[in-house]
Design brief:
Elements (H helix, E strand, L loop, with lengths): L1 H9 L13 H19 L9 H8 L6 H27 L1 H7 L6 H10 L6 H9 L4
Helix pairs in contact: 1-2, 2-4, 4-7
Length: about 140
């Protein structure tokens, strides 16, 4: 629960893109593994929600373990990249949608069409679908 709160409150922070995106479940697991001890030690008794865990870790940055700091940065870079890809998907894949999936109705069906025809879609469209976590 603590880690989910961290992911939810910090997911919107702008970070540079990472090489690969993580699902929210993977991000939660990674943060639980690397930051759980720091959260229990430094933020014990803290009321959850509204970014309080993130604030606590930032306020105690000098005491946060190196593993947690590194994991935190990687997780939020990945989440930012995933969210950016999800936001830009329609624009990036517009040509491929029109050329490869014309007449297909419904967002989910169009996405399934593009995934099915992945060898014939542009490299940019293929990459944004992958980065969005939909492949």
């Amino acid at each position: 629960m603590l880690i989910v709160t961290i992911v939810a409150c910090a997911a919107g922070f702008g970070m540079p893109a990472a090489a690969q995106t993580l699902s929210y479940a993977e991000a939660t697991t990674r943060l639980a593994d690397t930051c759980g001890g720091d959260i229990q030690k430094l933020c014990k008794g803290l009321n959850l929600g509204n970014g309080r865990i993130l604030e606590c870790l930032q306020q105690n940055a000098a005491k946060v373990s190196a593993g947690c700091k590194g994991s935190f940065a990687q997780v939020f870079q990945s989440i930012s990249k995933r969210e950016e890809a999800q936001s830009s998907y329609e624009q990036t894949c517009k040509r491929d949608m029109n050329a490869r999936c014309a007449g297909v109705k419904g967002d989910g069906f169009v996405l399934a069409c593009l995934v099915k025809k992945e060898k014939r879609v542009s490299p940019e469209c293929y990459q944004v679908i992958t980065d969005a976590g939909w492949r």
